[in-house]
């Protein structure tokens, strides 16, 4: 059950605020509307257990870009076929499986029935529909070109999904290989090394320093294994919580940019996202300064966003976009040149799309290079570590054999 503070007005204009406890907020809103009330705002005060769990684990209850792209594509197709927006949403909901996106669309449909605009209904679900989606839909509604705007959003989501899939595909194998290496090393330390302790005692030979270190490490990990696992889990949890704070997110994103190869990959992905998102909003008819504010807020890497945060103010003072980028200093030269050409030709949106495609190609090449380097390095790491353990275990045996001779 959720506790929701709702501010609503009656037909005489009298405004009231009441806290309701409900498991179905959409039914509560519908009931208020049926009684003749107009809902002005609502705020969740006390979330239910599942909502708290989703707050601790933000990957639960989310909506992927692929789901969002599929919904937008189908909605655009239905609108092109001549269906009204309300009927198009009904068609989408008919055979759709339950999930966060479907629940949000059901509420959006009910809001539209209450006379709320599509964009305002979308804005009530920021965890589902990002700000770029809402702002672009607002521009489409004002221009009477919602179907065309949805088409641009589909292209934007498909491009973003394609880049992320390339990154994921390139990193899956090295990640699995690293995990297997860590499991193998942990098994050696916890299970294999202790089997040699009694043998070494029976040999009655002085143990080399490295062997003593390996035995001590094995004893420590074996004794405190579950404590170490719990500490790692707790550390991961607190790191995730730290990453959700503005300062923590900014610090971690800055650290990513310092990583060899991965930092370059992170930077290229951020500038690709910047160029593609800005192009989508400009082509949708939104002003440059307003678009920049949304784009900077939506960038995943907050260190890059902080690097570019002065742009709206510089443009507001009358500087050109290209000169503003150049004055910032820490911006790739290719972006400055492309933006300059776009401003001069009056085709900034298309030039930014081309820039995003250029970065996507560089990302693809860099991921291929990264994969080709990481695989042999991981094999070498595993071979060196396992070889070191084997040498540490064999050295006392060889020493004892030499003494016997």
From TrEMBL:
One of its GO terms (biological process) is protein secretion. One of its GO terms (cellular component) is plasma membrane. Keywords: Cell inner membrane, Cell membrane, Membrane, Transmembrane, Transmembrane helix, Transport. It is found in: Cell inner membrane; Cell membrane. PROSITE patterns: T2SP_F. InterPro entries: GspF/PilC, T2SS_GspF/T4SS_PilC_CS, T2SS_GspF_dom, T2SS_GspF_sf. This is Type IV fimbrial assembly protein PilC. It comes from Candidatus Ozemobacter sibiricus. The lineage of its organism: Bacteria, Candidatus Ozemobacteria, Candidatus Ozemobacterales, Candidatus Ozemobacteraceae, Candidatus Ozemobacter.
């Amino acid at each position: 059950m959720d506790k929701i503070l709702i501010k609503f007005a009656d037909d005489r204009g009298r405004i009231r605020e009441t806290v309701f406890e409900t498991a179905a907020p959409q039914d509560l809103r519908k009931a208020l509307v049926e009684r003749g009330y107009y809902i002005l705002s609502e705020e969740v005060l006390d979330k239910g257990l599942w909502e708290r769990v989703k707050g601790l684990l933000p990957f639960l209850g989310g909506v992927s870009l692929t789901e969002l792209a599929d919904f937008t594509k189908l909605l655009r197709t239905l609108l092109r076929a001549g269906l009204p927006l309300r009927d198009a949403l009904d068609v989408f909901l008919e055979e759709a499986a339950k999930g966060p996106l479907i629940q949000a669309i059901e509420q959006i449909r009910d809001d539209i029935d209450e006379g709320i605009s599509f964009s305002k209904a979308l804005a009530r679900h920021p965890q589902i529909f990002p700000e770029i989606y809402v702002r672009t839909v607002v521009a489409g509604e004002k221009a009477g070109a919602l179907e065309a705007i949805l088409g641009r959003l589909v292209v934007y989501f498909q491009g973003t999904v394609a880049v992320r899939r390339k990154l994921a595909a390139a990193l899956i194998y090295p990640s699995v290989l690293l995990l297997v290496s860590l499991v193998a090393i942990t098994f050696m330390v916890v299970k294999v090394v202790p089997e040699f302790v009694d043998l070494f005692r029976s040999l009655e030979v002085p143990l080399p320093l490295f062997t003593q270190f390996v035995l001590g490490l094995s004893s420590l990990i074996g004794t405190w294994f579950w404590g170490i696992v719990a500490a790692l889990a707790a550390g991961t949890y607190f790191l995730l919580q730290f990453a959700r704070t503005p300062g923590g997110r900014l610090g971690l994103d800055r650290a990513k940019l310092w990583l060899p190869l991965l930092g370059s990959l992170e930077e290229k992905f951020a500038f690709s996202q910047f160029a593609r998102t800005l192009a989508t909003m400009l082509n949708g008819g939104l002003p440059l300064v307003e678009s920049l504010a949304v784009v900077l807020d939506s960038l995943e890497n907050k260190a890059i966003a902080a690097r570019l945060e002065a742009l709206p103010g510089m443009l507001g003072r009358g500087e050109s976009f290209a000169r503003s980028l150049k004055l910032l200093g820490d911006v790739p030269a290719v972006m400055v040149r492309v933006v300059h050409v776009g401003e001069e030709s009056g085709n900034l949106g298309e030039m930014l799309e081309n820039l995003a495609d250029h970065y996507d190609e560089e990302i693809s090449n860099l991921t291929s290079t990264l994969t080709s380097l990481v695989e042999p390095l991981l094999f070498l790491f595993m071979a060196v570590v396992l070889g070191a353990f084997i040498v540490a275990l064999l050295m006392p045996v060889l020493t004892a054999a030499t003494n016997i001779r």
